[in-house]
Amino acid sequence: MDQIAVYGVFRDAGIEEEKAKAIASTLRREFEQSIDMKQLATKADLQVEIEKAKSEIIKWNVGTILAVAALATAIARLL
After folding, report:
1. Within 13 A of 55's CA, how many CA atoms are on the CB side?
2. Separation of alpha carbons 5 and 23, rounded Å
3. Of 9, 28, 72, 77, which sits 20 to 30 A from 47 (CA to CA)?
4. How far apart are CA 67 and CA 57, in angstroms?
5. What's the whole-model pTM score?
């Protein structure tokens, strides 16, 4: 939450400067306390997860290709 933007909204609404600052500060503090920072992901966290997913997809694709090739070879030998 952008404390400056909230402050601006209150000032535009005609609330005194000190009261607007206090309200904006309180809202920011409450917002920060209400969210669990441990549950938020950073860009680095997301990049790590994407890399893990990519490697899993590659492993499954390679495994599937090898299995299909082995199956095709087995069928070809039977014919």
Report:
1. 5
2. 12
3. 28
4. 15
5. 0.49
